[in-house]
Amino acid sequence: MFVLRASVWLKALAQFRPDIADATEAAWKARVADNGFIRPGKDEFAAIPSESVDYAVMERCPADPKCGFAVKMVPLDAGWSDLGAWEAVWQVSPKDEHGNAAQGDAVIESSRNTLVHATSRLVSAVGLDNVVIVETPDAVLVADRSRSQEVKKIVQQLEQRERSEGTLHRLVHRPWGWYDSIDAGPRFQVKRIMVKPKASLSLQMHHHRAEHWIVVSGTAEVTCGDKKLLLSENQSTYIPLGEVHRLANPGTIPLEIIEVQSGSYLGEDDIVRFQDTYGRTSSSK
User: Which residue from 66, 87, 68, 80 is spatially nearest to 146, judged by alpha carbons?
Assistant: First the structure.
């Protein structure tokens, strides 16, 4: 654990790794405000050299007489763990008499020293020893407990195969709310969409898909071509392929809808945006 003033750190970084300092400053200058979030410039941030603080600064400073601050070490006896691996999660979790730890809806039988982390459904384990099972709506990980950090190799494979699971959660947050991709198949996709009060999606159109919207709760203001209508709970509408449209929430409570997409291509990059409250120009709702 490092404790120091931000000004001291920036000075040291500029001295020992000016390339990192300059690239970070460029990403900060390219930042945008997004509904309470501050987002550095995406391309500029990706260009920042990747190196740990240990190698970049801390190991160089004590040996450099020009270093502007002294490095001192103080023992800390606080039972510290940064929970950087699932092995660490197992270590700090309550366990049964066989060393098993369970979080969420889990049933474990005839197993020892196993961690089951369930977030969205029932997970059962039988006859396991020193295993980690992590279930999320996005994916399921099963690994030897001592090798759980090797999940990064799986992430590398996902990137090589251009799988979306490596970069995008099923539940995706946007400035106007969020959407959850709950089902998909050939030529169709189903999403649950929440729009915050007084928020709206961009005015947009799609080249390859049509959409059906069903209101679950709240009030929807729908722009479809030159028409504008209000929909309440259990009402629905149809957005034809190629039609300019927008979804907005004029009410004071969250709007939830179910969106059923159908068409030859359902990727998030099939969006032509005409107007956007949040200043976005890239694809995605």
Answer: 87
